[in-house]
């Protein structure tokens, strides 16, 4: 058992890092690449805090082995938008969709993936889409409002720098 | 909270033949990994971890999905959104866990899900304090501590009653699906229902080193009235605590064939095949559900409310949930009947999912 070289793209940058076979993507992002925006909540796949994009699809990084992402394109909350705040981030802040903030990166990454597939979701579709993410502060209503507001904004004025990966 | 995975060697074969060869080379000390949504949480709790993990995620042969067959490596989200598979199967796939878990999880993983129990799915520390359980590291069952053996009450160190909590398994069993395996001795195809067998540890009739390749649906799966109803503490994320899948054929309101499969109440999904109650495998233990005991004859009878009541009563009576997953066994037992009654009425009246 030895470390293996993992070559992949994180937030549009080529990265090469030596990882153990039993390290999850969340471990590597946080510990090896210092991208601590991705949070680890339950570490069992039930809270959604660790959501990142793997090849454009929202995935739980705590249940993805790092070596399974060989050659993949990863996007984390840090790479959502490099030059200006992303409409989702602004909407979460303005609507009070983020209180302690621990679940927020997961919610934003999942919302972002959801809005890419369905730019105009109904309240029920938002609820269903975010049903794998848990928030213990807001009571969810403010989060749904934030996603609705961001969806409207993103339809009217698409994000200037496209979401990475 | 970060939970460390135990140390293992990861193998990433790209063909089925290669994976079978790796499985033979590491016989007895490996696990297959597909989506990782079931295996990795169990590994994090130190549950029966092995030294080698063989990833099936890069094998293209497992990823085809057509009208009649679904590859074992197809992600659940792709079944949910596929327009060609029977509506009931797509609907059932959409009932599994949460959108994020469906994005990672695969059909094969859902069918081969490890059984669940309050005394099994716990951290190493938790299990250590209780002296472990039959399914992992220990030698006794805490759910059914004593069993009757030859008229005497003895310590249960034989039968594990952990619950099989798959959603797709009951639906596919009701539809009469076949499963195909590739193994060191070539490939074989069996009925999905025959594949599930035994207690919470044995679970399958699975030969060492075999890989589930695909699930094949019979032609009738597209024609029968079918549906699934799930009972779970929450609408999302949770495993079912009872799930009923039904495939029903009616001929002018009369029952032509009826297959009801109930999941998450026993160590395997339980099939109540009202069409042909004979020729059934002997049960491994009296602790497990016996679907054919006192089975009412419903064939050719008008499917009115009274008959639906008889059928659901039979299912409620025979199901034997144990106190090892959320919600009380008595409530779950009753809900098996209720879900069957509601679903049968919906299917009779032509309501579709």
Structure write-up:
The complex is a heterodimer of chains A (165) and B (353). Chain A has 165 residues and is of the alpha+beta class. Chain A contains five helices and five strands, in the order E-E-H-E-E-E-H-H-H-H. Chain A has helices at residues 25-32, 87-95, 104-117, 123-129, 141-156, and strands spanning 4-10, 13-19, 51-54, 57-60, 73-75. In chain A, a hairpin with a 2-residue loop joins strand 1 and strand 2. The radius of gyration of chain B is 20 Å and the shape is globular. Chain B has helices spanning 16-25, 39-44, 76-80, 87-95, 99-104, 107-111, 124-130, 168-174, 192-195, 305-318, 329-348, and strands at 9-11, 30-33, 52-55, 69-71, 146-149, 152-155, 178-183, 186-191, 211-216, 225-231, 242-251, 254-263, 270-273. Chain B has eleven helices and 13 strands. In chain B, strands 4-9-7-8 form a four-stranded antiparallel β-sheet. In chain B, strands 10-11-12-13 form a four-stranded antiparallel β-sheet, sandwiched between helices. In chain B, strands 1-3-2 form a three-stranded parallel β-sheet, covered by helices on one side. Chains A and B meet through strand 4 of A and helix 2 and helix 5 of B.
């Amino acid at each position: 058992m030895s470390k293996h070289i993992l070559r992949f793209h994180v937030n549009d940058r080529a990265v090469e890092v030596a990882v153990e076979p039993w390290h999850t993507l969340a471990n590597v992002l946080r510990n090896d690449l210092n991208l601590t925006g991705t949070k680890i909540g339950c570490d069992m796949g039930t809270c959604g805090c660790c959501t990142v994009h793997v090849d454009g699809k929202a995935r739980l990084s705590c249940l993805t082995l790092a070596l399974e992402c060989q050659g993949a394109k990863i996007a984390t909350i840090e790479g959502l938008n490099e030059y200006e705040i992303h409409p989702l981030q602004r909407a979460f802040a303005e609507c009070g969709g983020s209180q302690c903030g621990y679940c927020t990166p997961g919610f934003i990454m999942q919302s972002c993936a959801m809005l890419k597939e369905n730019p105009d979701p109904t309240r029920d579709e938002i609820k269903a889409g975010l049903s794998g993410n848990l928030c213990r502060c807001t009571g969810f209503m403010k989060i749904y409002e934030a996603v609705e507001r961001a969806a409207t904004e993103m339809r009217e004025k698409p994000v200037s720098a496209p979401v990475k990966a | 909270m970060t939970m460390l995975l135990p140390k293992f060697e990861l193998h990433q074969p790209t063909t089925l033949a290669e994976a079978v060869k790796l499985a033979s080379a590491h016989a007895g000390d490996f696990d297959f990994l597909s989506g990782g949504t079931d295996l990795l949480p169990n590994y994090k709790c130190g549950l029966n971890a092995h030294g080698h993990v063989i990833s099936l995620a890069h094998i293209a042969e497992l990823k085809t999905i057509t009208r009649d067959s679904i590859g074992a490596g197809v992600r659940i989200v792709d079944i949910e959104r596929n327009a060609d598979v029977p509506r009931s199967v797509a609907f059932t796939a959409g009932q599994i866990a949460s959108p994020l878990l469906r994005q990672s999880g695969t059909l094969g993983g859902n069918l081969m899900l490890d059984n669940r129990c309050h005394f099994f799915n716990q951290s190493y520390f938790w299990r250590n304090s209780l002296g472990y359980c039959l399914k992992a590291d220990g030698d006794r069952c805490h759910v059914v501590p004593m069993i009757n053996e030859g008229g005497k009450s003895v310590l249960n160190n034989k039968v594990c009653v952990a619950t099989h909590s798959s959603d797709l398994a009951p639906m596919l069993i009701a539809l009469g699906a076949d499963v195909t395996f590739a193994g060191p001795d070539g490939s074989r195809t069996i009925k999905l229902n025959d594949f599930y067998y035994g207690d919470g540890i044995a679970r399958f009739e699975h030969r060492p080193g075999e890989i589930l390749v695909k699930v094949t649906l019979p032609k009738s799966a597209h024609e029968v009235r079918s549906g699934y109803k799930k009972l779970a503490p929450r609408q999302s994320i949770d495993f079912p605590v009872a799930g009923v899948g039904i495939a029903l054929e009616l001929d002018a309101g009369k029952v032509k064939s009826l297959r009801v499969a109930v999941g998450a109440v026993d160590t395997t999904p339980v099939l109540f095949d009202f069409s042909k109650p004979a020729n059934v495998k002997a049960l491994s233990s009296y602790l497990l559900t016996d679907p054919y005991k006192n089975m009412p004859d419903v064939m050719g009878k008008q499917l009115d409310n009274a008959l639906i009541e008889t059928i659901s009563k039979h299912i409620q009576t025979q199901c034997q949930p144990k106190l090892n997953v959320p919600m009380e066994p008595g409530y779950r037992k009753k809900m098996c009947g209720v879900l069957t009654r509601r679903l049968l009425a919906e299917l009779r009246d032509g309501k579709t999912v």
